[in-house]
Structure formats: structure tokens, C-alpha cells
Queue: 2 jobs
Job 1
Amino acid sequence: MSNVAVIGGQWGDEGKGKVVDVLSERFDIVARWQGGPNAGHTVRTAGKSFFLHQVPTGLLRERTMGVLGNGMVLDPAGLLEEIASLEASGFVIRGRLLISHRAHVILPVHRVLDSMAEDAGGGIGTTRRGIGPAYTAKAARLGLRVVDLQDEETIARRITAFMEGGAAAYLRETGREVPDVAAMAAECAAFGRELRAFVADTSVWINERMDAGATVLFEGAQGALLDLDLGTYPYVTSSSAVAAGLGAGVGVGPTRIDAVAGVFKAYATRVGGGPFPTEQKGEAGDLIRERGREYGTTTGRPRRCGWFDGLAARYAATVNGLTSAALTLFDVLDVFDEVPVCVAYRWRGMEIREFPAEPWVLEEAEPVYAMMPGWKSDTSQARRIEELPDNARRYIDRLSELLGCEIGLVSVGPDRAQTILGPGRFFRKILGAEAPKTAPARPAARAAGRPAKTRARS
Ligand code: IMP
């Protein structure tokens, strides 16, 4: 398996950072293709936590190269800070990180416009990092790219085009200060000088390296349900978070992707606005939030928490063509007597089994849950799939049925060591681990073919 994409299967924050970190020791290059500082990965290694926003997680492995692809929008100040803080912790970043010269630049004015849109009412709860305005500028051909930062005249021309393309008039009309183009250009030129050593034609570079036999892990940010085309529009981010987006976002052909791994929490969370049928606003949601430390890495916002949504997950698995799935934060569910799993929606007397595009259906949909018996024991110390209680394994099997693909990895805690391989084979194969010596546990009571007992939510 030479080149593997890792994507989020829900609304982001699925724990992709940890999965990428575990896998990345087997890859030569880790490349990001979309988003920017709206992403937030927490990676824990050697008892220390690292919060990464723009730098690929793979850089925490010594021999791995990191690439920030052309499909990204980058905040130069934040990126330089991240590089400096990793270097201060002893990581060598220079010579190991390449930034695409075609990636776009987030300007401070993009952040202002993002916040203004949010504050004006009708916002969707963005991270206020300027992501939407930077991608809007890109699509409107008013963007500033990393390559432009090398030429002061081009910087000034591009920023002027953006400001005169509507931004300055809008700021003036709403009584805001219009930032000075010359000052913005000077700041950008300084960033250009600081970033110069990292900038490359990463598309050509990565293709040449792949031709020479290098392996690539494509690291997704956000999640399939936040994808601009396939997510719960308009409550989405402004880039392509699904696996298919990576070709355009890194500059490689689709023939280069050998497999796609989807990362799912054992439950579900969402930050910001938008429909979330399985959301739990009461005690269960609070317990998940506290046990899962469900507060945003980027904004610190408490995340909305709920049960695993089988329809949404199946949809994400389908549109990404998943080879395998990784299940994270599994131990968070250790305390529940029963764990509900959404297997259908009920809407105006109808039962719905496909994830709908209609926002009004998603807003009103009542989940139909299969009640899975809890396992009520600490799974955080388990290191092999056979060490998990039977009910925990039944839960995993049920999720695998709903996803329509194997589950190849289960994470039971934030540390690298708290990672269980299997029951599926994909991750075991990549990590070169041996197959389990004992036969798999007793078949699940509700294995494929036998429909789960479902009951409507009271
Ligand atoms: P934006 O990407 O900042 O424009 O925000 C658009 C939507 O995506 C908002 O609902 C954000 O909360 C959500 N979002 C963006 N990045 C992430 C992420 O990394 N994790 C979870 N939600 C995110």
C-alpha cells in the first residue's frame, strides 16, 4: 500500500492527528491538501501534547517529510509561529517541510471579513480564521499565493485587486477601517522572505519522489460532512475535505491513491452550527464531552456531542470509497449502560435510511436507535482486540456493518501506545503487525444478516 489518504468521516475532530501520527512512521511523506489554520490536531507523544494547525502531523516523526499542498490556505504568521514552537521543542523542521508555491495566503483582512460575516447574524459558527474569505478570493481570482510573496510588486497588485474587488467598499460602508495596502504588502513581503526556504513546486517534487518509490500519506483536515460539495451545506468549510479532493489539492493524479482510511469517533461531535440529528443536549452529551475532553483545539469552543450516526457515517464511507475505518475515543463510551447507535431517521412518519441532502429533513429528523449493550469496563489499557469485552467488540462489529467497511484500528486513549489493531486487516498490514494469534471472539449477536433490534427515541 504505497499511498494512503486519511480523511475525517464526520464533522471534523475525529482524532485524525493521532491516526496519522501512528501511521506516519511507515511513510516517507505526509501531505496536506486543503484547509488551513481552521484545523487543529492534538498529538500526544512522550507524555507531551502538541497542538498543530497547519504543519502536517507527520513532521513529529523524525524521517518523514511534510508537504503543505497547493489546495491549502495558509496564515504565514501562524505557520511561522508553529514552526518556531516545534523547533523549540527539539524537532528539526527546516529541510523537512515544503510549502506549495501555489497555496493561497490568508490576509489579516480575510480574518476581519470572516468575523464580520459571523457577527452580522446568519453565520454558521466558523473558526474565524479567515478560511471562507480566503477561498472566496481564490475562486473570484482575487487571491494572493505563496509564490506571489517573492515579488513586492506582485504582492501590492494582488492585494489591491482584492481590496478594490469589493472588500474596501464593504469595509467602508460598514464603518470599518480599510487597511493600508502598502502596509499589508510590506508585511507579506517580510513573510515571503521568512518562508522562502520552505517554498517549492510541491506537485512536481511529490510526483518525482513517488516515481522514485517514496510512499505518501495524504492527511485530511475537517471531515466529509464539512466538505464544500458533499457536506451538510451551507454548514460546511470552504474546501474539499473528501479523499477525491486531494488530487487537485496536492497536484497528483487520482491513480496515485491506493487506499483511503476514514477516521470516526465511536460517537459523534460537531462544532459550530448546522444539523446534528443524534446530538445529546442533556446528561449523556455532557458526559461524553467531559470524558472525551470535547473542546475545540483551535477555538476552545465546547463541542456538541451525540451518538454515532450510522446514516451519516455510511454516506461518508461511500463518498470517500473507504478501504478501512479507524475508530477513535472508544474508551469514552466505557461508562454507559447502553450505547445507542442511529440506524435510521424518522421524518414526518417516514423512515429514512439514506443520509439526506435536504436541510429541512436533517433539521427535523428523529433518529431511530439500535440500543447496544454497554461494556462498563475500562478499555484504555487494552492493547489487543481480544482484550476488549465482548460487548465492546459487538459494538465495533455493528459500526462496521453500518459503515459497510472493515474497522482496522481502535484507539482507546490519546497515547500512541493506546492503539489496538484490527479486527480488520488494513492497518495491521500497513504497520507490519502480525495477525492475532487467537481466533476472533464469538460472532456478534447482531452480526450481518440479522437486523438489529431498533426502537424509536422516546
Ligand atoms: P471554517 O472552516 O472556519 O470556515 O468553518 C466552517 C465550519 O467548519 C464551522 O462549522 C467550523 O466549526 C467547522 N470547522 C472548520 N474546521 C474544523 C475542524 O478542524 N474541526 C471541526 N470543525 C471545523
Job 2
Amino acid sequence: MTTNTPILIIGAGFAGLGMAIQLKRTGREDFVLIERANDVGGTWRDNHYPGIACDVPSHLYSYSYLPNPDWTRVFSPGGEIQSYIRTCAEDEGILPHIHFNTDMLESRWDAEANEWVVETSNGTYRAKILITGTGHLADGHMPKIDGLDSFKGEVFHSADWDHSVDLNGKRIGVIGSGASAIQIIPEMQKRASEMVVFQRSAPYMVPRWDREYTAGERRMCRRDPSVIEDMRSEIFWAGEFNFAQRRNIPRFLEEAKTLAVSHRETHIKDPELLKKLTPDYEIGCKRLLISNTYYPAIAAENTTLEASALARVDGTKAIGASGEAYELDVLIFATGFEAVRPPFAARIFGAEGISLDAHWDKGMQAYDSIAVHGYPNLFIINGPNTGLGHNSVVYIIEAQVDYILGALDHIEAQNVSVIEVKPEAEEAYMDKIDVMSQGTVWLAGGCKSWYVDERSGRLTLIWPDFAHSFRDENGSFHPAGYTTQSLTAAE
Ligand code: NAP
């Protein structure tokens, strides 16, 4: 069976749904959204580990046009975010457009028909415009660990939590010390008889200024929408202020480091442990983490901090790169996502029949962080150079959605059948990104992170500027960067 649609969106997370909502709000009813799972929510649907919460305040980490007066806390738990996303999809009438359990297997540009042919687990789609909203955090990364198959206990990834495993009184190994791990570890410490944390690199951590919103505050938010507006603005500009750290400006780095050091020293009294928990790179080079419960969990009696990577497994033993071995019942991999080489890219084949993954063999890149030469009529939301270390990615998504709406207006007004970014425009944009990246803490901070593609040394994940500059630069469509063919003539 083939479904024909002018616009096909892939993924029902914040990005794909945000696109769908705005298509509908601007009067475009004729679109389909395919989603590989059976619910909306994307990474918030998939990540339901104990302790999950957002580390961006919820009033900002939500659609600007769908404020939620009922957030219960400054940093809401994951389940609340998932409910919010579901409510948005229902209230905005998006559910009838979504084809669930429909995994995009392969998308090929058909140059004769000027459309994308999309094979899915649920039939074929043909679409004039293809929009991906698959995000950076869609597919969990499992490191290759020698002997892991021989492990006698339970093994799972943070993004695929197995709630059927009884963790109480177990000997639990947690692998990783990133944003997911530091939320999981305090919860595991409460349940485990013994816990071992395999820490390849120590993260920087600052206090989490979390609290419940009172009933009165929530009522105020309901009665007067300007209250939420003001909160959003305050949170946003506080985040923007922190961008100065990422630009490697010494005064701001020192301020952040002082806060991190005092937080660490408040909770960790053992000098050996303190040494292990002290990062050996510049603050901000990896994601700056926020937690009040991580250090106490690490300092607890039943926790061992193994300051080396998990190197191999042998039966019931998990062995660190240091050679230290631990008898464990459960291994939890909080080892991140396939963000540098997103799996969707290996499934998209452009005008030359080359996969986007192969095309990106030196790392991801896109004009205006959204379009790639050789891949006509394709827009990528939350793709190259759209990640943030200091602010809400929902803000970036909204800017990209506005860009695409502008492109669609142009396509409709000019009767365009093919729109493709000019290679020189893409290169010029990437040159600009490279210049902006130089000297930032992500490149100069002395750490190894997934923000940088090892193959080129380029910063491919992060937008290396203020979030508001992203909107200034990429929040509206730039026709000059594209060539177009109309149904009657080539321009
Ligand atoms: P991540 O930041 O990529 O962290 C993965 C961790 O696994 C790192 O600490 C890494 O060490 C470690 N690792 C990998 N292989 C290892 C091995 N063999 N032995 C020991 N450690 C190993 O992934 P994440 O924590 O899932 O976070 C990913 C992103 O998700 C975050 O940056 C954030 O954007 C998002 N997130 C957000 C929230 C939120 O509250 N909003 C919560 C969770 C996640 P190295 O540091 O040495 O590479």
C-alpha cells in the first residue's frame, strides 16, 4: 500500500510534533507524521528510568505557544513532561495525523517524480517534502565491551529501562557519569546492597535549584499568562548569560568553577574520593550537570567509585580499565546516545543515491543547520549544530519550525517542485560555524565529548553561540541559499 502526502514528518517527539502543530495552526492539514513507537514523546517516552527529570526548567522546556501552568516543580520529572507532550498532541488535534508503529526503513529521492519514496515497516509513503524530527537522543549507545555476552546477570540501557528487574538488595553496576547516570545513581544507591559506578571521566556538577511550585503559584500561572511569560524570559536570559562560560571567558569560567568546587567539597570529605571526582578538563567542555543527590550517593557506604571505564566482563565479574574486578548482579549502561552518527542518516539516500551517513563521512553538516546539498526537499530538525549546552533545545526547535514554514510558503508561492541548498551556501555556513567554534570550551577545553566529531575534529552537534542568535540567524527561511525548480521552469 502506498500513502501519498505532500509533507511527511518522521518522529513524534518535541521536534516532529512541534512541526505538525504549526502546520495545522497555519492551515496545512495535508500531512502525515510517522512514528516508530506506539506513543508520542520521543526521548521522553523512551527514557523512564528511576529519577528521570529535566535539567532545564520546565516553564522554558515547553512550547512557547502551549504554556503549562500546572508544572509541579522547577525541574519536572520525566513522566510529567511525557504527559505534557501527549496533551499537546491531543489538544492540537495531531493524533489523527500520526501513523504509529511505523519505522522509517529507507527514504530515497525519486528525481523523476520529484518526491521522496519512504519505505517503512508499515508500507510505502511518497512525499513532496520530507522533514525529520528524530533528535540527538533517539538511539541508545551501547559500548562494545569484551565478554559482555558472558554476563550472568541482567543488562540494560538507561534509555530502555527494564522495570521487571527487581533491583532491591542487588549488586548494581552503573556505567557512565553523564546527565542520565547522575540521575540514576542516587536512585540505585537507595536500592542496591552494593553499587559500583564506572566513571571514565569525572563530570562538573553544580547545585540544582529545584523546588515544588505552590498551589498559589500554579493558580497565578493559570489566571495570568503573563506570569509564565515573565518566568520563561527570566530563565531564558539566565541561560544566555551562562553562554559566556562556553566562550571560554576566564571570569565566567572561574565563577562556574568556584561553584562546582564548593559543591563538591561540601559533600565529599574523603580526599581520595575528592581526587577521583575532580575533572581534568575545563568546565563546560562536557555538559555541566546539576544534582544535589549525586555526591551524597557516591559518598555513601554501599557505593564504590571505580574511576576507570568498564573494560570487560567475565561471567559475574565486571572489570574496570584499572584492572579492578567487581562481582555484580545487574549492569546498567548510562552510556549515552548515537548522536554523532545518527542512525536515521544511514537510511536516507539523496539525488546521487548516497546515504546521508556516507555523505557525512567527515561529520554532520547542514546549511542553516537544516538542509543538505544533494538531498532536495529535505529539512532536518534538531540535526547538525542545533544542540545547546546552556539553554532549552525546544527554543531551537521552534526556530527551525518557523524556518520550514517560511520555506513552505516560498514553495507554494513560487510553485516549486524541487528545492535544494546551493553547495557554496552550505560551505559558507559551515565556515562560519567553524569560525564561531574556535576558542570555545567545547574545542579548547581539553575533553573528549560527543559534541565534536572525531573524524574531523569539528563541532558538529552544538550551536556555538547564544540561543537567541540561532533564532536571529536561522529562525526564518533564506531563499538565496537555495536553487529551485518550478513545475514550469528551472530558476
Ligand atoms: P552521555 O552524556 O553521552 O554520557 C555517557 C556516559 O557514559 C559518559 O559519562 C561516558 O564517559 C560514559 N561511558 C561510555 N562508555 C563507557 C565505559 N565503557 N565505561 C565507563 N563509562 C562509559 O549520555 P547521557 O548521560 O545519556 O546524556 C546524553 C544527553 O541527554 C545529555 O547531554 C543531555 O543532553 C540529555 N539528558 C538530559 C537530561 C535532562 O535532565 N534534561 C537527562 C539525561 C540526559 P565519558 O564522559 O568519558 O565519555
